[in-house]
Structure formats: C-alpha cells, structure tokens
Amino acid sequence: MTESLFYFLASLTLLCALMVVISRNPVHSVLFLIITFFTISGHYILLNAQFLAAVNIIVYAGAIMVLFLFVIMFLNMNKDSESRVKTSTLSKFAGTIAGGLLFVIMVAAVKDTTIAGYNADTFTSQTGMVETLGAVLFTQYLLPFELASVLFLVAMVGAVMLGKKEAGEQHF
Amino acid sequence: MTSIILLSIFGIINLFVGFMKSKRILLPLSLLFLAVVFGANLFSWNEAQSYFNHMLTIDNYAVAFTGIMVLATLLLLPFSQHYIEEANENLAEFYSLLLFSLVGAIMMVSYENMLMLFIGIEILSIAMYVLAGSDKRRLRSNEAALKYFLMGAFFTGVLLFGIVLIYGATGSFYLTDIAATAAVNDGTVNAMFTLGLLLLVIGISFKISAAPFHFWAPDVYEGTPTLFTSYMSTVVKIAGVAAFYKLMAAAFAASYAAWFPTLIAITVLTLVVGNIGAVVQTNFKRMLAYSSVSHAGYLLMALVAFNERSDASILFYSLSYALATIVAFAVLQYVSEQRNGDETYAAFNGLGKTNPLLAFAMTVAMCSLSGIPLTAGFFGKLFVFTAVVQDARLMWLVVVAVLMAAVGIYYYFKVVIAMYMQPAADAAKIRIGSFASFMLIFITVFTILLGIAPALVSDLL
Amino acid sequence: MNFILSSLIFTPLLAALVVLLLPVRRQKAIKAVTLLGTLVQMVLAILLYFRFDGSAFANGQQGYQFVEKLHWIGFSLGTLGRFQIDYFVGVDGISISMVLLTGIIGVIGVISSWTITKNVKGYFLLYLLLLTSVTGCFLALDFFLFYLFFEFMLLPMYFLIGLWGGPKREYAAIKFFIYTLVGSLFILIVMIGLYTSVIDPQATAVQLGLIGAGGTAAPNAILQVQQMLQQNMVSSADMVRTFSIPAMMEPANFIPGSLLHVLSGVELWYLPIRFIAFLLLFAGFAIKVPSVPVHTWLPDAHVEAPTPVSVLLAAILLKVGGYGLIRIVYPIFPDAGAYFSILVGGLGVLSIIYGALNALAMNDLKKLVAYSSVSHMGFVLLGLASLTTEGVNGAVYMMFSHGIISAMLFLVVGVIYDRAHDRAIQNFRGLAKVMPAYTTFVIIAFFASLGLPGFSGFISELLVLLGGFSAPEATGMLPRWLTVVAVFGLLLSAAYYLWALQRMFFGKYWIFPELRAKATITDLNFREYLMLAPLAVLALLFGILPNLLLDKISVAVTGMTQLTLQNGQEQLELVLSSLIR
After folding, report:
1. Same domain, yes or no, for A68 and A142?
2. Which helix (H) or strand (E) holds C74?
3. Domain span at residue A133?
4. Do A68 and A135 share a domain, yes or no?
5. What's the Cα-to-Cα distance from B395 to each of B325, B401, C134, C266, C356, rounded to whole Å?
6. Considering its fold, how many domains does chain A have in total?
C-alpha cells in the first residue's frame, strides 16, 4: 500500500515538476509548482514527518507561491511578452546534450550505488516528529539555526533597500 | 567565533545609527567596528578551538583568512566617500550588509560542517546580490543584480545537490566524518559520492568565478557599483578559495584522485580564458573582471598542488591580490567619476601628469597583479609556482601559468601606458579625501613591503 | 665583513632616495646628486678593480671575492625541506669587468643626460634605479637575487624609453618590454625547476648536524653531504634547497631523481629535460643579447630612446644577456652547452652577418649603430660556443670593449641629432669641414668598432676568432667554416662604417635644405668633450694594454671554460645514456 502510494506520489511530483518547466503560461507553471509542493508534503507524511509536511505547505505553497502569483499577475506576463526571448537552435541542442548527459550520469550513479536500507532495530519512528526536530535544532544544530537569522536579516534589509522608491531609478 | 558575534551585533548597530540625520559618523564607526573585529580575531591565534558541537573550528587557518578578509574590507571602505558626499540614504544599509556578509565569509573559512558552509555562502551571496543592484539609477546595476541572482541561485542549487549526495553516501555533514568514510573506502565511496564531489566542485567554482563557470563575472562586475565590485573580487573570492581548500583538505584529501583531473582542467581553462579574455577588453572594469578570473586560476594552482605549501601560498596570494585589486578599483572609481562614468582605458589618459599619486598607486598595483619583482604579487606567484613544482609532473602547469602571466602583463600595462604616455584629455585634478589618499599610500607601501619581506606573511601558516 | 659590493649596488639607490626627496624645481641639485652618486659608484668600481685578485679562480662555493651572504627569505616546507633565498653577492673575474664598465658608463650617461629638460626628477630617479638593478645583476650569486634585479631592470628602462623617447616611443617601449619579459619568464621557469633540484650542501650539512650552525665551510662535510645525497641517504625533510648559482654549478648538488638531475631520464619533445631547460634559458638571455632572430626589439628601442638611454641600453643592458650566458647557462648546463654549441655558434655567426648586412642598408645613422651592436654581440655568442679559453676570454673582452665603443657610437649619433634634429645619413655631407673635432671622435669610434689594431675591439675580435679557429681541434665544438663566415662580418663592418664616414663627413659641406632652418651646426662643446674623450682614451688604452683587463679575467674564464668543458663531456654521456636506458 505505502509502496504504491510512494510511486504514485513520486511520479506525480516528477510530472508536475516537468510541467512547471514546459508549460508556456506562467500562471500554469505556478499552479503546477503548487501541486509539486503538495506531493512533496505527501512524501514527508509517508516518512512520518508531519511537521515538515505542514511547514512545507504553509510556507511554500501558502506564502511563497501566492506571492509568486501576485507578482506574475502584476507583471502581466502573457504569451506575447514571453515570445520575445528567442533561444537559438544551437544553444537548445547544447542544452539538451548537456542536460541529457547529466541525467545519464545521475542515473548511472544511482544504479551503481547500493543504498543501505533502514535498520529495523535502530529505527525510531519519532525521528521526523516535531519534538525530535526541535531538540536537534536547538542542541546540535543551534549555531546554523541562529546564524540563519543573519541570513534572513540580510535578505530583509536587502529587500527593503531594493524595494524603496528612489529618485531617478531605472527598470527594464 | 568572537568575530562572528561582534560582526552580527555591529551590523545591527549600524542599521540603527542609520536612523540619525547625519550619515557622517557611519564610516568612522564602521572602520572602528572592523578594527575591533580585526583585533579580537587575533586573540584566537594559536588557540584552536571548536564551537557548538564542532560546527566551527577557529584555528590558525581561519584566523589568518578572517584577518585578511577583515583587513581587505577595512582598506576598501574609505573609498566609499562619494556615497557620503552625495548623502546616499542607503549608506547604513550598505555598511551593515558588508558587515553581515563578512559573517558569512568567516563561516566559510572556519566551517566543520557542510551546513555551515552552505549558510555562510548564502549569507555572503545574498548580500552581494543586493549590493550588486544597489545603484538603482543605472540600468546596468539592475542587470548585474538580476544576472548574479539567477545564476547564483542556480549554482547554489548545484552546490546543495552536491552536499545532499555526499550526505547520502556518507551519512554525515561533518567534514571529519566524510573524510573518515572516504579514507576507508579508497577515497571513492561510491558513484554517488563522486558525483556529489564533482557537483560541489562546480558549485564552488562558480562562486570564485573559475572557468567555465565564470561567464557571469564580466557583466556583473561591470554593472555593480565599483566599491562593491572591489569587495566582490577580493573578499568573496578569497572566502571562496579558502573554503574550497578547507573542503578539499579536511574532507576529500583521500579522494584526491577523484577530483584532481576535474580541478586541473578547471585551473588551466581558468588561466587561459581569464587572461586571453582580458586582452581583448577595452573597458578597464571588464578587464579587471577577467583578470580576477585569471587570478582565481593562480589560486586554484596552489589547490591543485595540494601539499604542505598550498595553504600558505593561497594565503599570501590572496593578500597580495586583494591589496592590488582594492587600489585598482579605488582609482578606477575616482577616475570614472570625474570622466562622467567613463570606465575605458582612455579615461586614464594623462593621469600621471594630473594626479601623480593615483597614477603611482595604480602602477604599483598593476605591477603587483602582473607579478613584477619587489611587489607582493611577485612572491604570490612564486610561492604558488614553487608549491606546484614540488610535483615534477606538474611542471607543464607552471609553464602554462608563466606564459599566461606574460599575457597578463600586456593588458595590465595598457593602463600604465595610458596614464603616463598619453596626453591628458581633462587636466583637472581629481579631488581625493586626505584619509583616502593616506589609505592609497598605505596599501602601496604595504604592497612593496611584502615584495621585499614576504616572510611577514608567508610564514604564518 | 666587507661591504664594498653592497655599497656598489646601493649607492645609486641611495642617490635615488635623495633625488626623490628633492623638490621638482631644484633641477640643478637633482642632476648634481645623480652625478655624485654615479661618481661614487665609479670610484668604488675602480677601487674594486684594483683590489681584485685576478689570480684566484672561483670554483663551486669558494673563490668568489668580497662575498656577502645574508639570509633573506627562508622557511620550512615540512617534509619538502627548506625554502631559502639568500642575499648572496660576490665578484669573480667575469663580473669584475662588467662592474667596472657599469661604473664608467653610469657617469658618462649622466653627463650625456645633462640637457634633459622634460620631467628631470623622474628621469634621474629612473636612471639611478636602472643602475642599481644592473649592478645588482652583475654581482648577484643567488639566482633568485639575479632574477629579481634582471626583472626589475625592465621597469625603469620601459619608462625611460616610453616617456622620454621619440615619436613612436610607446610601440618601442612595449615591444622592448614584452620581448624581454617573455625571455625572463623562460628564465623564471628554469629557475624554479633548478630550485627543486639543487641543494645547498653546506646548509644541508648544518641541517644534518654535520657542522654546527654558522660554522664555516668545511670541505669534508660538504663532500660527505654530496656523497650522501647521490646515494639517496639524505631525507627530503633535511634538504635545504637553494637558489645559489655556485651550488647549481656542481653536478654533485643535484638531488637524484629530481627533474634536472643528469640521470633524471625525463624527456620532453624528444629531448632530455636538461636540454629543454638550457634552450629556455638560452632563449631568455639571447633576447637580451640580442641574437638574431629575436633581435627585432633592439633597433626600435634604440631609434626611439633618447641618447643617454641608448648608451645605457647598448653599453650595459645588452651585456646582462651575455653575462647571464657565461655566468649561469653554460656552467649549470655544460652538457647541453656542448650539445648545442653549433646552435649557439650558428646564431652568433648569423647575428654577425645579418646585423652587418642590415647596418649596410640603413639610412638612419642610429639604426646603423644599433645593427652594428647586433653584429658585434654575435661575436660574444661565437666565442662562448667555441668553449676554448681564447674564445670565452674574447667573449668577455668583447662585452667590455663593446660597452665602451657602443656608448661612444651612440653619443656621437646623439651629438649630430642634437644639432640638426635629424640623423639620416643622406642628409649630410662634408661635416668634417665644419666639425673637425667631432669628426675626429667619429673616426675613432668607427675605427675602434670595426676592429682596427690598437683599439680594444681588435683584441676581442682577434681572441674570438682565434678561439673559433682552434675550437675544432681543442674542444671539437664548432666547424671551421662557421668561423670563416664570421670573418666576413669584419669585412662588412668595415664597409658600412667607411661608407657612412665617406657619405657624411667627407666631400663638400652640404646639409639637406629643409634642415637648414632649424639646424645650428657647431663643433663639440665642453660637455661633449667630457663624455667622448674618456671613452676614446679607454678604447685606446684597452687596445694597447689588453693585459689590464685580461689579467683580471683570464684565470676565472679559463677555469670556468675548462670546468664547463670537462663537466659537459661527462654529463652529456650520462644524459644520453639515461635516455637510452
């Protein structure tokens, strides 16, 4: 049951992620991306990590994607404005070959690797729960956790600075 | 650790000071902060200690590189004077972002855990994305920020992917654990490990603008306001190379055979592309962008050599390169401001007559970058080359590098020719603040001093 | 300790510092300080010349006189041994002649520069820096120190040509710069390669505890270290690698299995790596000499450079190339030197003939003199390639004599250029009528240069040709026809000098009409006598009494030649045998 669910979710994730890139309409892309996030959250639930699943939906699907939609709607991007960008056939070819090669290497790497399965004796089902996560975050990973706040502060300061109106500013 | 905490606090203080009407106090205050951090950093010398479950280790390597990066920031800040004069309202933000990004840079030279490396790189990069686009009145600056951000985000993804694959193969983010796992498995645990390693190499190569992942550098460097370009090509690059070496030495020393072919290809390509690319430029700033690519190549040579001299060579080279680059960008900034934003070689015409100090400082900087004796740059190159030839099989790499150094002299001296041998288009003297000119003299003297007594720095590590 | 060599090197630097501190307006004072500085240097050089003991032969670590050795940069490389650069200067028979030349030409150059008006302070500052670096080059016994001075020499010269030169000065300056720089980078590569291959036996002995720190050179200990080294008994951590040229000259100091050891067996492009190293070094110095086909920077540089800079360039700077070949290239790679003697000698003869033919075709008097320099420096290569005592002595003598004579030639060209602002041969006729004193000096300079007996040029050419002709029997180096061809160079040089003399100075007085307005043709003034007369006297003195110089140089040169020859034959066999294996 779980296994078939996993394969279903995984294929859905890949399909939607592919559609994000392929679809011509940016709004469709965003919607596909939201589905992708949902399916990833599904994976988290399968791994017994409910907290992460919830956070993933709230933060990514909820906040960030809505912001994305807003921006795209404000910019009024439609098919006309998108078609201005032309990629040459040569670069398409090069991109396909390079990407395909990377794909082949990845597949080969995964095939070549035997990944150790979980050990039923030492496995605790509580690993993904919020208590364990919190404990790890505030003990072992305290420093990166705190320093991430500097990262966010930088991003915030930057966003405010770039967002402010300034006399004589130019845009594309 | 002290420097990380101090810089975070000082950055916030700077933001609050920005609320005051007069912005004049910001520069001296920031310089004071940096001086305090520089001093505090030195207290950890010879007192290696690891913090917070071995997330960070402040050893002599970290202290030395932190010192150089803080020093570089300290030296380039005085050239932000024109922001003060035009009463830029974002001044406090600029200074705080620089201080915050130094936090990231310090994390990159002292990390023991891949997570720390990642967060460090991100702090540094996000601050740079913002600063690249800080001149909103110029379209170029917008372009630079956008390009840098998109490319940077993509390669951050590559880096993260690499880290994840390594985690998958070894089950740890800790450098020591990775090294231990690699050591018992002949350096290559499995194909996933190797793939992760290569993705890591690619991710960091982008950050230090090594070819073929350098393509963003010229446009971004050109568009970014000169002060921040200077920061980008010194502190960001030094942090990147130092992080690279630390990663290879601490985690992947046993995997030498796996990354050596890739890295040597990147190195040679970087040397050739950087130097040949710089020759055809007519814009001085773009030339400096390519030159910074080529210097990444020389720094990578020391990494490729991978012996006991590598870290000390990287350290000395970083310092000499930073000193010269800061001067080059500072002079460029003064000149292009006076010539209405002209950044071509022609803008420097006759500078030797009108502004002897600027011209002399620039000449010494160019000599140092091209590796003329009695400047720091010469010993930088010499140390790197001697580190490489310890392995006789790599002699050809030195030959390539030396030929590329000869190419380098051609384009570095173009500006010297323009300064001394072309008639001045505009005879007006450029006004430089007394503090800024003191700094120029200081850096020039320091460059020559290191060219006579390199042992001051070369013996540190 | 004796500080005479350091004083020689740093006197101009001291004067440069004083000049730097003087205000720009005090032009008289700047010139006076420069003159004083060069005079002191010349007096020191002459003093050194008289106190130098010509009968002592320098071999290996010993025998250099007035040696000063100070540790400069040194640090441990862990298991890779120690990195060490010394401030190591000393003088032997080969360098003494060059130092003397530098001292004399330095003063003459200042006198000739007296009329410079454009940016006087900068000019004399660079002039003094140039003198410091050239003197340093001639005295350095540490390869690194030598390279430092060699490379630093470029900068002042580049600016002297580029700022005070003629109309095409930028092109000439950057051409000079790039050519010489590429050469010096070749030298750098080999220098680094040598550094990884050579140890300092004495310092290694200290490291091994065979002699106490600061102990004097103990021949036994050094011998022991060298034997241990060749038997692979010295661990890598104990090796003190060195840039010392005397240490590099001894095959016993090469680390077995290292890149440039005779038995390394490493091949590159079907040649042993030592041969490649020799060719790189040779190319580096041949550019400076300059030898055909890498001579093309020289005429451009000379034509654009102001007179005093041309004087320095021809009289001293070119000598660094020849000096490098004699001091560094041949003693360190005697095997390759023997193997490639035909190449070196051939290029020498090619330079002689090609330079002379070019000179014959030139209409610009300065270009003629410049090509005659190429031609005469070819004799240095030929003499060196013969590896006979006469030939190498002749080469050193040629460098000295060419220094004196070419300085005079360029000064003579400068005199006419100062007056007419032109130096095309066809624009003047019958100058002897209006400038008799000047014509006398021109004749002296021309005849000295074409090798008239009684002048120093004759002695050197004679010695080189003697060496060349005896080489097939004595050393088996050069085929005889090569030297025969070289003799034709003498004929050609007589032709171009005499033809120029006839066209410009004899006949009825006439100058090109367009020049008449600007030109004021007067005879020599006091300053010009002051710079030309001493050179004429020296050219005569060293032509009549060659022993003045040969006494000082011949022992050293003979020793070096024999050692090179002997080591060369032995090592050549080893190198070739290591390849077959």
Report:
1. no
2. strand C65-76
3. 126-163
4. no
5. 28, 10, 30, 12, 40
6. 2
- ipTM score for this prediction: 0.91
Which of B1, B50, B86, B126 is best to mutate for the A interface (most A CBs within 10 A)?
A: B126
In this structure, are A76 and A132 located in the same domain? no
Chain centroid to Cα B432, Å, comes to 25
Domain harbouring A48, CATH code: 1.20.120.1200
- The residues spanned by each domain of chain C are 4-194+271-569
Neighbouring CB atoms inside 10 A of C42's CB total 20
A69 and A13 share one domain = yes
Q: What are phi and psi of C198, to 5 degrees?
A: -120, 140
Residue A74 lies inside a defined structural domain of this protein: yes
- CA–CA separation, B385 vs B100, rounded Å? 35
CB nearest to B136's CB, from A114, A155, A166: A166
pLDDT tens across the length of chain B (461 residues): 889 999 999 999 999 998 887 778 888 999 999 999 999 999 988 888 898 888 999 999 999 999 999 999 999 999 887 777 777 778 888 999 999 999 999 999 999 999 999 999 999 999 999 999 888 888 888 899 999 999 999 999 999 999 999 998 888 899 999 999 888 877 777 888 889 999 999 999 999 999 889 999 999 999 999 999 999 999 999 999 999 999 999 999 988 888 999 999 999 999 999 999 999 999 999 999 999 999 999 999 999 988 888 888 999 999 999 999 999 999 999 998 888 888 888 888 888 888 889 999 999 999 999 988 889 999 899 889 888 887 777 888 988 998 898 889 889 988 988 888 888 777 678 888 888 899 999 999 999 999 888 888 877 77
Residue C576 in contact with partner chain B when CB distance is under 8 A: no
Q: Are strands C510-511 and B56-58 parallel, antiparallel or unpaired?
A: unpaired
CA distance B97 to chain A (A): 6
Is residue A7 located within the same domain as residue A65?
yes
3-state secondary structure C526-572: HHHHHHHHHHHHHHHHHHHCCHHHHHHHHHHHHHHHHHHHHHHHHHH
Residue with tokens 């694959």: B165
Asked whether the beta carbons of B83 and B333 are under 8 A apart, the reply is: no
- Inter-chain CB proximity A168 and B15 less than 8 Å: no
Of A65, A81, A97, the last residue of a domain is A81
How far is the C-alpha of B200 from the C-alpha of B207, rounded, in Å? 11
